[in-house]
Each structure stands twice: as structure tokens, then as C-alpha cells.
Write a structure and sequence with these properties.
alpha/beta; CBS-domain; three-stranded mixed beta sheet; 5 helices
Length: 139
């Protein structure tokens, strides 16, 4: 395995991103998250540009504030989320996630169009594999 500083985040994107429009309701988004077994949905424009993200944390906040599940995602999403470019490294993604205390990062191309989403679990798996290989080399 390559050093995490050489692995591109695009290599971690395994499936098409799960998206909704700003007009989707929280209930629709949560049902989609459940069906797809993901912890977030990305809110996109018709052109595929990232407008926001809605995560499990956002759902907890929404419920805690007593807002109904019929609320539009566009009203409760995290706007302008932190993103990474598809050619950024896993190391950069890990640093951003730690610094911003986030678990999901939308991956975009240089035009800002969504290409996928990586999670803290994805990044941790690359780092763990690299650490294992280092251990094997040093033994």
C-alpha cells in the first residue's frame, strides 16, 4: 500500500453519493439514509454542486429542537460543508476531519460537482492498513 500522503481520496469513493435536493423533507432524507445504510446525504443543486450536507448529528439536533420531520432539508442542512477535491490525499482528508471534527466529507471535482462521500471510517481503514504494513516491515 502507498503512503496515505500519496493515496487520493477518489480511491476511497466506492459508490455513487446519496443525494437529495433542498426541497426533500427530513423524513425522506432519513428514510434514504436508512435504506442506503449511510450516515449522511449530500444536498445538491440540479447541476450536481454541493449546497449542504445532512448527517446523523443534524438529525439529533433537529429532534432535540423539536422540529418536525416534514421540515425541508434546505432549512436544516449544514450549509457550505467542508469538501475535498478528488485528487486531494487521504492525509489531507484526515487532517480536515480531525480539525473540523467531522465524520463525512463530500468529494468534488475542480468544478465543484459531487463525486462521492468519504467517511472517517474510510480514512481510518487506509491509515490502519498502512500502519499494519509498517509493522510487518519493521518486524
Amino acid at each position: 500500500m502507498s503512503h496515505p500522503g500519496l493515496v487520493k481520496v477518489s480511491e476511497l469513493v466506492r459508490k455513487a453519493p446519496i443525494t437529495v435536493t433542498p426541497l426533500a423533507t427530513v423524513e425522506e432524507a432519513v428514510r434514504l439514509m436508512h435504506r442506503e445504510e449511510v450516515g449522511s446525504v449530500v444536498v445538491v443543486s440540479p447541476e450536481g454542486k454541493v449546497l449542504g450536507i445532512f448527517t446523523e448529528r443534524d438529525l439529533v439536533r433537529l429532534i432535540g429542537e423539536g422540529k418536525p420531520l416534514t421540515t425541508r432539508i434546505g432549512d436544516v442542512m449544514t450549509r457550505d460543508p467542508v469538501t475535498v477535491y478528488e485528487d486531494d490525499t487521504v492525509t489531507k482528508a484526515a487532517m480536515l476531519m480531525a480539525e473540523k471534527r467531522i465524520r463525512h466529507l463530500p468529494v468534488v471535482d475542480r468544478e465543484g460537482r459531487l463525486k462521492g462521500v468519504i467517511s472517517a471510517r474510510d480514512v481510518a481503514s487506509v491509515l490502519a492498513r498502512y500502519k499494519e504494513e509498517l509493522g510487518e516491515v519493521s518486524e
